[in-house]
Amino acid sequence: MTQPDWIAVDWGTSHLRVWQMARDGTVLERAESTDGMGGLDRGGFEPALLRLLPPPVLPLVVIVCGMAGARQGWHEAAYAKVPCTPPGLPQAVKVPTRNPLLDVRILPGVAQDRPADVMRGEETQVAGFLSLNPGFDGILCLPGTHCKWVHVSAGEIVSFRSFMTGELFALLSRQSVLRHSMGEGWDPEAFDTGVDQAMGRPAAVAADLFTIRAESLLHGLDGATASSRLSGLLIGLELAAARPYWLGQSVAILGSSGLARHYRSALEAQGVPAVTADTERMTLEGLKAARNAMETP
Questions:
Q1: C-beta atoms surrounding 86 within 10 Å
Q2: What is the pTM of this model?
Q3: 3-state secondary structure of 37
């Protein structure tokens, strides 16, 4: 097989995704593994990458976004500070490699001083969305373990705020007393109820959470209903706090189909229409934009 023109890499805490790319931006091959940053020491990154690639026979450019650039990652890539355009190759860090044919560049994340906040990987998704929608001015919502609300204007990241909603859901549903009430499936009415409760009375959410457990004990609350209401309460609480971002703004949600659909439903209940875009595609488009910048005079 002919060597690809370059390699696109998304390196998360728990995953590694690699795309072998043709010069025209076509994906020749996609591969992934569970060799995320969280399970590797500094010497393990290059072997983990090479396990997903054919042996290079010519110099090969590798463009990496995500947690490989963290302080505990492959090689630290210092944060760019807002307001800024999403970082590209001019800000990327070149990584020393044992294999001399690898030309590895890690894109930096983005930081905000007040309120203190950071992102790694999401800025590449923002770059991908802007490459496809260059005139967009508004808010990008990036659901996940730590959901980001990003204000974008004139091609720049102006400000952003992170919410630990996904992590809170995981902790409460798996490690709290509520774990005994959780079940599989989805109940849209229960989700909407949770969103409404949290949006209307955010100060009461701690009590409303325990009500889920009490209702399962006293009234046989269905597991899917309990799980969906928990999700609604937490996303509603997030929306209440993020109101300055989405109120009166154009909103696009960059996320996996299921989670993006829940956020879209919650926003539309507040009268806020939102478009959705696939996270993986936005990541790849952002990496392609970085590669294209190498050829721009």
A1: 28
A2: 0.94
A3: helix
